[in-house]
Amino acid sequence: AKEVGRNNSQWYRPEMNARLRDRLRRQKQLGEALARDQFRVVYQPQVDARTRNILGVEALLRWDHPADGPISPMTFIPLAEETGLIVPIGEWVLRSACRQGVRWRRAGLPPVRISVNVSARQFLHDGWAQTVASALEDSGFDARHLELELTESLIMQDLDRCVQTMKRLQDMGVRFSIDDFGTGYSSLSALKHLPIARLKIDKSFIRELPQREDDRAIVMAVISMSRRLNLNVIAEGVETQAQVDFLCENGCDEIQGYYFSRPLTPAEIGAMLAVQPTV
Ligand code: C2E
Ligand code: CA
Ligand code: CA
Ligand code: CA
Cβ of 88: how many Cβ atoms within 10 Å? Predict the structure, then answer.
């Protein structure tokens, strides 16, 4: 270790120690955040591209740190995944979302699908299917309104196990979408055998629409492929009218993004659902 140290003196820079200390401190705080009630879930509408009705919402986790303020999931989710804390935290998100769905229903609001993000660590964990079953049962939330968002890399990590778990959940009525579609390395021949209801076109392909020619081609190809395969398709990260127009013209089913709405509190979603014309 001494020799490595001599040759790699950057490991001994004081700011490196500070960074490591920071990380360990964050890790410890993350471990306590559940018990301290510092998490909340916000919901971003997913709307029908034509009618603009809210068909679903995506549950997105927020961590309100008492000293440092809100911390982005882009930083703490990877930390939760590395430490395994994503298992209890993810279960909490799932249970919160199911309970919230029931609350909206009991308030007399039209039913919406709720999409919950699932990490590989969670999905491949023994007992995940059981956790979902128990969250549904305890809350009374209709399984047919629950959608789990999986990434291509999660699926390719352990395809056999994934298929098994997906089938069990599908039997309960739960549906699946592929998140960030197009950014991973899944083979279409593998995806073909999975019970997938929707593809979510990653926001990196939407950002420079409609100017960028290669993104236009990719998005049009994904939409037409989805239609032929009878999959529903949604675009995420939609921010402009020009993007909405392009997506509508090309037959995208649903849109999600700041153009329509940022992620909102449960009360704000309730207010939107309450004024939504029934179809
Ligand atoms: P994601 O699943 O791809 O979620 C979409 C992200 O895009 C969200 O960021 C959302 O707020 C953001 N977004 C929505 N509309 C727009 C838009 O028009 N433009 C742009 N530029 N961004 C938009 P957020 O909430 O910061 O979450 C980041 C990531 O953290 C998520 O990406 C997801 O991978 C992860 N994450 C969030 N909540 C959970 C959770 O409960 N469990 C797990 N496993 N991961 C989560
Ligand atoms: Ca997602
Ligand atoms: Ca995504
Ligand atoms: Ca993502």
Answer: 13
Q: Whose CA is nearest to atom 21 of ligand 1?
A: 237
Q: Can you tell me whether residue 58 is helix, strand or coil? A: strand
How many angstroms separate the alpha carbon of residue 66 from the centre of ligand 1?
22
Residues 233 and 68: beta-carbon distance below 8 Å = no
d(CA 273, CA 54): 7
Q: Is the pLDDT of residue 11 over 70?
A: no
Mutate to test the pocket of ligand 1, among 198, 208, 236 (most ligand atoms within 8 A of CB): 236
Ligand 1 environment, Cβ below 6 A: 44, 60-61, 72-74, 77, 90, 93, 117-119, 179-180, 203, 236-239, 257-258, 263
**CB-based contacts of 106: which residues, under 8 Å, 6+ apart?**
none
- pTM given for the model: 0.93
What interface predicted TM-score (ipTM) does this complex get? Answer: 0.97
Beta bridge partners of 150: 178
pLDDT at 15 > cutoff 90: no
Query: For residues 15 and 39, what is the distance between their CA atoms, to the nearest angstrom?
Result: 30
pLDDT digits (tens, 9 = 90+) for 69-115: 999 999 999 999 999 999 999 999 999 999 999 999 999 999 999 99
Q: What one-letter code names the amino acid at 141?
A: F
The closest residue, in CA terms, to atom 30 on ligand 1 is 73
